[in-house]
Automatic annotation (TrEMBL):
Protein name (record): Tumor necrosis factor receptor superfamily member 5
Compartment(s) where it occurs, according to its Swiss-Prot or TrEMBL record: Membrane
The TNFR-Cys repeat ranges on this chain: 25-59, 61-103, 104-143
Domain TNFR-Cys: start-end pairs: 25-59, 61-103, 104-143
Species assigned in the record: Physeter macrocephalus
Function per UniProt: Receptor for TNFSF5/CD40LG. Transduces TRAF6- and MAP3K8-mediated signals that activate ERK in macrophages and B cells, leading to induction of immunoglobulin secretion.
Lineage: Eukaryota, Metazoa, Chordata, Craniata, Vertebrata
One Gene Ontology biological process: positive regulation of macromolecule biosynthetic process
Cysteines engaged in disulfide bonds, as pairs: C38-C51, C41-C59, C62-C77, C125-C143
Gene (name only): CD40
Length: 216
């Protein structure tokens, strides 16, 4: 108990005597070890042995399938991540000695997170909504409501909102107004003037006639 302070004192005197200025911090590309500043290993290489009075830091390149992204003093390189096909993952970019492998999702799916640990199917835009932006391997579909004059009658990951049919340009009249889920229904004019409400498609009349005929 009594010897401890004395020892510390002696040790302190010893250090001060032998190394007048032991470094307490090193440059950004160096690290402190054994009271000495050693160069860090560059990205893509791991540490084999610290520098000494007479030798520089000894580094070795990472093996195939491994990487180290930054200047470091790591004894081991990191393993490239594996894009597991059983999780719907595939390689987007193969890793190098300095970069990790980047995974993405198979066709029709996208990553559930920034790190792409798993995949989920692209969302569909419901009727009344159109695809604003088609999904990619890393981002989901973006839908938008169909504005007036447009419609979507399908659930789809690709279909945009379609413009209503212009009956006028077909020489027909509008029979049913369009909605955001249905197209305009055009009918033949009965030559009673443009926009006549009497206009009815011939087919519909025949269909109705059939129904009437079959009615017991
Ligand atoms: C579609 O139109 C209906 C009726 O006007 C409206 O209630 C609904 O919010 C619209 N849907 C979208 C996606 O805009
Ligand atoms: C959607 O609308 C188009 C154009 O009016 C039509 O041809 C198609 O049959 C409709 N599909 C469904 C599923 O309603």
């Amino acid at each position: 108990m009594v010897r401890l302070p004395v020892q510390c004192l002696l040790w302190g005197c010893f250090l001060t005597a032998v190394r007048p200025e032991p470094p307490t911090s090193c440059r950004e590309d160096q690290y402190l070890t054994n009271s000495r500043c050693c160069n860090l290993c560059p990205p893509g290489q791991k540490l084999v042995s610290d520098c000494t009075e007479v030798t520089d830091t000894e580094c070795l390149p990472c093996s195939k399938g491994e990487f180290l992204a930054t200047s470091n003093r790591e004894k081991y390189c990191h393993q490239h991540r594996y894009c597991n096909p059983n999780l719907g993952l595939q390689i987007q970019r193969e890793g190098t000695s300095k970069t990790d492998t980047i995974c993405t999702c198979d066709e029709g799916q996208h990553c559930t997170s920034h790190t792409c640990e798993s995949c989920t199917p692209h969302s569909l835009c419901l009727p009344g909504f159109g695809v604003k932006q088609i999904a990619t391997g890393v981002s989901d579909t973006i839908c938008e409501p169909c504005s007036v004059g447009f419609f979507s009658n399908v659930s789809s990951a690709f279909e945009k909102c379609h413009p209503w049919t212009s009956c006028e340009s077909k020489g027909l009249v509008e029979q049913h107004a369009g909605t955001n889920k249905t197209d305009v229904v055009c009918g033949e004019s009965w030559r009673t003037g443009p926009g006549s409400r009497l206009g009815r498609p011939l087919k519909l009349n025949m269909f109705q006639a059939k129904l009437t005929f079959r009615d017991p």
